[in-house]
Amino acid sequence: xxxxxxxxxxxxxxxxxxxxxxxxxxxxxxxxxxxxxxxxxxxxxxxxxxxxxxxxxxxxxxxxxxxxxxxxxxxxxxxxxxxxxxxxxxxxxxxxxxxxxxxxxxxxxxxxxxxxxxxxxxxxxxxxxxxxxxx
Length: 135
Known about the structure:
Elements: H1 2-15, E1 19-31, E2 34-43, E3 48-58, E4 64-69, E5 77-78, E6 84-91, E7 95-103, E8 110-121
Antiparallel strand pairs: 1-8, 2-7, 3-6, 3-8, 4-5, 4-7
């Protein structure tokens, strides 16, 4: 009976849905030729996956979202310039990260970007392939 209870508990833990924590969900304004860090956060206890979704409400050339680790100038993951897009990337624990959004292709005006940044804890490595940075 105890073995059955332990087996059921193990299956529940392994089959449980990953925990999602929304770090940011808002509409931001990016001026033409602007690059902005929108959120910075540390991961202390455990690794996670980051998911960044964006939808540009105004802006002809689109915007680009990137994830950086503290102390690094090369992005861990990033999107191409798009009007709407998403990226997912694995993050290691005991590091600090930042998410940047840039509007460097638009010469005049501004872009309004609906942005959501989410951390996913407990996701299995095979759930999504790791994203790669684009230049």
